[in-house]
Amino acid sequence: MTNEQILQNIETHYIPLTEACKTELIKSSKVLFISDKDTIIVNEGDYADKSYFIAKGVARAYYLKDGKDVTDWFAFENDFICSINSFFMDIPSPHYIEVLEESVLLEISRDNVSFLSEKYIDFDRLNKMVIIKTMLQQQHRIVSLQFETALQKYHNLLKTRPDITQRVPLTHIASYLGITLETLSRIRNPKY
Amino acid sequence: MTNEQILQNIETHYIPLTEACKTELIKSSKVLFISDKDTIIVNEGDYADKSYFIAKGVARAYYLKDGKDVTDWFAFENDFICSINSFFMDIPSPHYIEVLEESVLLEISRDNVSFLSEKYIDFDRLNKMVIIKTMLQQQHRIVSLQFETALQKYHNLLKTRPDITQRVPLTHIASYLGITLETLSRIRNPKY
DNA sequence: CGAAAATTTGATCGAAGTCAATCATTGTGG
DNA sequence: CCACAATGATTGACTTCGATCAAATTTTCG
Questions:
Q1: Dist. CA A147–CA B68, nearest whole Å
Q2: d(CA B27, CA A28)
Q3: Do A135 and B84 touch (CB under 8 A)?
Q4: What sign for the dihedral angle of Cα A156, A157, A160, A163?
Q5: By the 8 A CB rule, do B84 and B91 touch?
Q6: Do B142 and A139 touch (CB under 8 A)?
Q7: Total-model pTM
Q8: What is the pLDDT, as a whole number, of residue A95?
């Protein structure tokens, strides 16, 4: 996967960028080729000042709640992911971020995001789009968590990500949906 | 309440703004003095392209879920509120926004937000701060909804807003917390 | 003051959690 | 390349928190 392909993906899924902006974006970011699944790219406690564009693969953000692994976020192809508290508030990360498949990521630091946003208005728009998209997804998730049954939440997830069960262990899907693995397993039984 | 006081509040709770920016912000926004509680300022179906800074009072965003009133958001003094889906995606609002006390609001349109963000870097920073603050609050709310008991959710709300029970009917607090009014009432009983 | 709205209290029910035991799949070392 | 340990998923029995339905009580306000 080349730099050009990655930029192409960003442009088709977000907005076109000027040549100058793209050149400087590549210069100020780093492509990570991660071959091992379950590679941890952010650890709890890190000052995680990097944001990652998933060019290929899947990643998840999770944290330990009373020692139990709770998935907070999945990022698939063309999504961005970061440790949201750490990135935006400059505090130690409560989250781990882990890659779940062989993946290609574009890594960019908060400082470089700021710098590019100041310099290129199209990058600033991209940046705002990513943040607003995240906010709207969270909004949707809040409604979902609050008023949907386990079954509805699972079906809705499948609607937006039909391939998720092939790519992500059920344990992570369960904790993401706020249900137990056992309940998820029962729900998946066709007799429901 | 004067324009100067409102601007002063914004500056102390967010960031200082240049004089030019403040002058133009006042010119491109409108102060609403709302004397009747329960005044609806955004209706379901509206293209709600306005954002409101609460200089004084309380407002809430709510929607009807199967005919039932569900509170999605409270905004108190120095908070911003808007119909998030409508404002950012330019679609008809699923939310109503209602004022719950005699209030003073500063109303600004999406177009004016864009314009001021382009023209004044300090306003752009303010705008980003508001969005990121919203995102982080939602993040916190997701964790809360997913793993806390009714009692914990209520206590946490009281910790950040001790005065909320004096200012907002319990029905709205209950639906905001994702619990029924009856459960909230039981939880509030000192024997818990 | 009295009607309407808000809140409390009580009794019952059900969705999903917990604990525990199996079953299935995967991947690694002999 | 198989065996078997480790991990992941399913199934079962039981429990619990909070929902629902219903009624009583308190508060608010014209």
A1: 12
A2: 39
A3: yes
A4: negative
A5: no
A6: no
A7: 0.91
A8: 95
